[in-house]
């Protein structure tokens, strides 16, 4: 990954960091500065959210890249190094012309030696997967709850707040999930449930709801 980024023009190297920064700003503005979002909650929620958000940014900035400078390299001149070459000599970077501390490698994209070189993974892999994972987790969790209650998205949004609303199609958690996924032996297989055609015409109801 590092070598491929080095081959790109300098302007293109800023595309991914800029996209991540815009995503952070968009999420923050859309939630924290929205009159229907965080601003509608008590002030203690606003303080807690912004404090957590600031801590996240500080942690991200501190883990970006630990560049090895000459001042840092002076501390490895002694006999405290654990990682040595096969010949027993101390590790030395010929590109940076500095001794390599333990757990340090040269990053061709950054053009310097990096301690615990996983700085690109922190930004590119962890942050991106975290955003996608949270979005999918919330979406999956919402529809799993709807499946357990035997509610469609439209019924949940429009009818659940209606006075006197009764969900006649809620026949129990296990039966509700069986309607959605079918037989438990083939529920995880990418096949069309055989019972789904009949369900499109008539749905089982909970007769106890009519009492």
Automatic annotation (TrEMBL):
Primary residence: membrane
GO cellular component entries: membrane
Catalytic activity: L-cysteinyl-[protein] + hexadecanoyl-CoA = S-hexadecanoyl-L-cysteinyl-[protein] + CoA
EC class of the enzyme, as a word: transferase
Topology of the protein relative to the lipid bilayer: Multi-pass membrane protein
Palmitoyltransferase DHHC domain: residues covered: 88-124
This protein's name: Palmitoyltransferase
Gene Ontology MF: a single term: protein-cysteine S-palmitoyltransferase activity
EC number: 2.3.1.225
Keyword Thylakoid recorded: no
Record keywords, A-Z: Acyltransferase, Membrane, Transferase, Transmembrane, Transmembrane helix
Lineage, opening ranks: Eukaryota, Sar, Stramenopiles, Oomycota, Saprolegniomycetes
Family membership noted in the UniProt record: Belongs to the DHHC palmitoyltransferase family.
Protein location: Membrane
KW Nucleotide-binding (keyword) present: no
Pfam families according to UniProt: DHHC (PF01529)
Organism: Aphanomyces astaci
Membrane spanning stretches: 12-33, 45-65, 121-146
């Amino acid at each position: 990954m590092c070598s491929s980024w080095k081959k790109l023009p300098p302007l293109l190297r800023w595309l991914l960091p800029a996209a991540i920064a815009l995503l952070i700003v968009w999420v923050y503005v859309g939630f924290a500065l929205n009159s229907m979002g965080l601003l509608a909650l008590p002030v203690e929620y606003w303080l807690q959210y912004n404090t957590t958000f600031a801590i996240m940014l500080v942690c991200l900035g501190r883990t970006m890249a630990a560049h090895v400078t000459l001042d840092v390299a002076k501390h490895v001149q002694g006999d405290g190094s654990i990682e040595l070459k096969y010949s027993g000599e101390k590790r030395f970077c010929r590109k940076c012309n500095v001794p390599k501390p333990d757990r340090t490698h040269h990053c061709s994209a950054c053009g310097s030696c990096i301690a615990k070189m996983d700085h690109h993974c922190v930004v590119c892999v962890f942050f991106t997967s975290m955003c996608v994972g949270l979005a999918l987790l919330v979406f999956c969790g919402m529809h799993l709850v709807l499946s357990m209650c035997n509610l469609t998205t439209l019924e949940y949004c429009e009818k659940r707040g209606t006075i006197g609303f009764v969900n006649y199609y809620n026949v129990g958690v296990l039966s509700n999930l069986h309607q959605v996924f079918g037989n438990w032996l083939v529920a995880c297989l990418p096949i069309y449930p055989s019972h789904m055609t009949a369900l499109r015409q008539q749905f089982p109801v909970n007769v106890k709801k009519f009492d």
